[in-house]
Amino acid sequence: MLPSSHTQLTILVVDDQNAARVALSAELDQAGHRVIEADSPDWALELFSRYRPDLVLLDVEMPGHDGFWTARQMRAAEPGGWTPIIFLSKSGEDRAIWQGIEAGGDDYLVKPVSPVILHAKLRAMQRLSQMRHRLVQLSDDLRAANAQLQELSHVDSLTGLMNRRALDARLQQELDQARRDGDALTLVLCDVDHFKRYNDARGHIEGDACLRRVAQLLRETCRRPSDCAGRYGGEEFALILPHTPRSGAMTYARALIRTMALAHIPHPDSPVAAHITLSGGITTCTPDESTTAEVLLMRADDALYNAKSYGRNRFFSYEMQMDTDEQRHITGNG
Ligand SMILES: Nc1nc2c(ncn2[C@@H]2O[C@H](COP(=O)(O)OP(=O)(O)OP(=O)(O)O)[C@@H](O)[C@H]2O)c(=O)[nH]1
C-alpha cells in the first residue's frame, strides 16, 4: 500500500489491462486519492476533458492508439494548461522513454512500479503542479494590477498623450474655468479617416506607429500652453482649446488639415487622399450653468458624424452648421 499523501489528487488511470488497472487504482485509492479509470484511449480522452484530473497515469501499450498518441491529444486539448502525465510501460528502452517525453509526458516508469517509487513521483508532480498554479495565479494578479494601473494612469500608453480619463477631467476643469470667466471654450473630436483600411493594408504594428505620428502632430498643433490633445480611444483624438471662439476654432482646424497634408503620412488605400487625413467635429460655447461636459461631447460627436458624411478630411462646426471647406469658400481664405 502507498503511504498516504498530504493532498487528495484526482488521478486518471488509463490501462487496457483490467487486472493491472484495478490493482493500481486500489493502491491509489488507499493512499487517499480519487481515482477515475479508463480502459481505452478514447474513453481516457473523454474522461480527461470531463473531469480535468490533477494527474494522468497512462499505459503506453494499448490496442489501436497507444499512450503516446493519447498524451498528444491530451496536450492539444488543454492549450496553455498542463496536467502532469506519467507513462507506465513494460519497456524501459531509452528510445521509448524519449518518445514518451516527446509526446508530452513528464515522467516514465517501468512496470511493475514499486508503490514507494510511484508515491514519490506523485509527490514530485504534485509539487510541480502547485508551483505552476502559484505562477499562473501570480501572473493573473500581475495582469490585473497592470490593468488597474493603466486605468489609474492619465497617460495613453500608445501615444503618450492624455488618455480618456485625463481628458474628461481636463474638460470638466476647463468648462468650470470658462464658465467663471465668461470665456469661449472649444472642444474638437477628430478621427483618422479610413483607418481600418490602413490597418488592413499595412498591419496593426504600422497602424500603431501611424497613430503615434498623428498624436505627435496633434501635440505640435497645440501651441498655446492651455491647449491640450489627448487620445479619446482607438483612432479618435480630442483637443480642448480654451479661449477659442468659433471662427478661431475653424481656423485652427484648417491649419490642422494643412499640417496633415504637409506631414504626408502615406495611406495606401484611402479614397479621400494619398495621405492620412482627419475628420473632426467642433463645438464652441461660452458655458452657462446648464452646459455640461456630456453635452459638449455629444455636440462634437454629432459634428464629427457630419464631417464624415460630407466627405471626410474636413472639420464640421456644430454651432455654425458648416464645415471647413464651406468656410474656406465663404471667407475666400486658404
Ligand atoms: N493599429 C491600431 N488600430 C486601432 C487602434 N484602435 C483602433 N484601431 C482600429 O481603427 C479602426 C477603426 O475603424 P472604423 O471605426 O471602421 O473607422 P475607419 O476605418 O477609420 O473609417 P471612418 O472613421 O469612417 O473613416 C479599426 O480597424 C480598429 O481596429 C490601435 O490602437 N491601433
UniProtKB/TrEMBL annotation:
The keyword RNA-binding does not apply. The keyword Lipid biosynthesis does not apply. It comes from the Bacteria. The modification 4-aspartylphosphate is found at residue 59. Gene3D superfamilies: 3.30.70.270, 3.40.50.2300. PANTHER family: DIGUANYLATE CYCLASE DGCM-RELATED (PTHR45138:SF9), REGULATORY COMPONENTS OF SENSORY TRANSDUCTION SYSTEM (PTHR45138). Keywords: Coiled coil, Nucleotidyltransferase, Phosphoprotein, Transferase. NCBIfam families: GGDEF. Its EC number is 2.7.7.65. It catalyses: 2 GTP = 3',3'-c-di-GMP + 2 diphosphate. Residues 10-126 form the Response regulatory domain. Residues 183-320 form the GGDEF domain. Transmembrane segments: none annotated. One of its GO terms (molecular function) is diguanylate cyclase activity. It is an enzyme of class 2 (transferase). This is diguanylate cyclase. Residues 128-155 form a coiled coil. InterPro entries: CheY-like_superfamily, Diguanylate_Cyclase, GGDEF_dom, Nucleotide_cyclase, Rev_trsase/Diguanyl_cyclase, Sig_transdc_resp-reg_receiver.
